[in-house]
Each structure stands twice: as C-alpha cells, then as structure tokens.
Design brief:
homotetramer, mainly beta, two-stranded parallel sheet, 0% helix, globular
Chain lengths: 80, 80, 80, 80
C-alpha cells in the first residue's frame, strides 16, 4: 500500500487562508499535497476562478492527514 | 485541482508481472504512482506478504491513468 | 540514499520539442522530473520568457536518467 | 526552473535524531525530501548499514531548504 498524495501547482484558498502577519498567510488543506516551495506560484480563490495573486510558499507541513502551507503573498491582482 | 498520485516504496506484483526477458519484467498498475527508480526496492506478491525478491526499476511510464514499470529482478527469495 | 527528482509546474522547451503529429509533441529533459499529467500546464521557450502556449501532458516516461514528455499543445500565444 | 526534491524510502539518522519523548524522535535533513508518512518505514544509522528499527513518520516539515521529520520509533533491532 502506498501513500496517496496530490501534486498541486497553485494555491487555491477557497477563502480559507488565515493572515498571520502583514503579507504572510497560513492555509490548511485536506490530504497530503505536494506544492512547489520557494518558487512563485499563482493564488486563486477557486479552481476555475481568476488568478488573485502571486505567492511564495515558505513552509509546507504534513501531519494528521492535512497539509499546512505558510506563504508570502507577493502581489495581489485586484479587479474592480 | 491537483493531480492525484501515490508514493510507493516497493513493488507489489499481485502475480501480474509479465516477463519480458530473462530477469526483466513489466508491471502495469492503476493510477499514477511514484516509485524510486534506479535504486534497490523490495518485491512482494501481496502487500502484507513476505518479500519475494529485490529489484531495480529501469523505467516508469505514466499514461492514460496507468503506471507501467519495467524492472530487473536481481534476487529471488524462495521459500520451500 | 534517495532518488533525486525535480518538481516542475510548466513545460520549458528551450526550443527542443519535437513534433510527432499535428499538435502532439515530444520533449526530452535531463533528470527525473515530476510534471502534472492530464491537466493544463503552461508552455514556455525559456524559464524567464513569456508563456508561449498551453498544453496537456499525455505521457511521462522516466528512464536512464531522462524524462520524456509527450504533450498536446492546445493553444499557442503568438506575439507579432 | 523546478524545485529539487529527493524521494526517500527509509529514514537514515546518521546518529543525528533527537529524542523528543519516550519513542518520538525528530530528525533534520538537508534539502526537501519526500518521505512516506503514516506508513511503516525502516530506520538505519547509515545508508549501507543494517536496519536498526521500524518507524512511522508522524510529521514532515519543509522550510528554509530543510526537511524536519517527527517519527515514532516502533521497534528497535538490537544486535549484540
């Protein structure tokens, strides 16, 4: 039996990101997920939604069936 | 949406490995699975079974929701 | 000792993609690389270059220290 | 540019594991490393050494170019 994981290429917040500091956020996701760390990734609110910003993941934690991301939001694409 | 994959640390044949040549075998598994290539891995018939041999994976192919392994069986643990 | 691999989130061709059929291409890269398969990825000529298209990877092969991608180019962003 | 990582199938302590509690240990490794979490893995002191025990990884953290494992040592193979 192997270990299920999911390869993710962007951050999808579903509005659940928690602000830790100025531009530092934490996001908890179900399951073990592989994210690119230290490089730029796109941030979206929903999978099919528009890109809402660019971030750099600073920390990935896997424990108890969850993935906890800590990321720095570098730019925000606001659409009015 | 991410891409589901499974991290595997050994080969579990379930008796479905196909011999290609002398000690070269091919095994098709469902889903996309990550296996260590070029290094020694254990081979088992069933997940909870005993180790039946040692192999070196020479090729991993991912396509159409399947993983195809080509591996060299290096030693066989026979139990009579 | 582990197995080195590289997580890639987009296809960088460096002008070395080989056309197999109409919109089907093959690209050989050094090392074992993990790419998202079956989902949309961006295609670039160079790492820091502009996005030149969108593709869907149909096959990933790992063998002899190389990664061979077969991908379908879905759209091309031409800039004149 | 991708993100380098290393697929590991066992824990190699090099004598640097730190005891946190009774049978709970922490180990810091260089680089980002993929380990199977929640399933049984072998523990060794050195890559080519004998198996010194069996463990279950409870937490994997990736940050600042390091991987920090928290694991439960389940059995110890002592050789006198």
């Amino acid at each position: 039996m192997g270990m299920p994981l999911e390869l993710n290429t962007m951050i999808v917040t579903k509005g659940r990101a928690e602000r830790l500091e100025e531009n530092l956020f934490r996001l908890k996701k179900d399951g073990y997920r592989l994210y690119p760390i230290d490089i730029l990734v796109e941030v979206k609110k929903t999978i099919r939604g528009e890109i809402s910003g660019t971030a750099r993941i600073k920390k990935v934690e896997w424990t108890e069936g969850k993935t906890i991301l800590t990321y720095q939001l570098l730019s925000l694409h606001t659409t009015n």
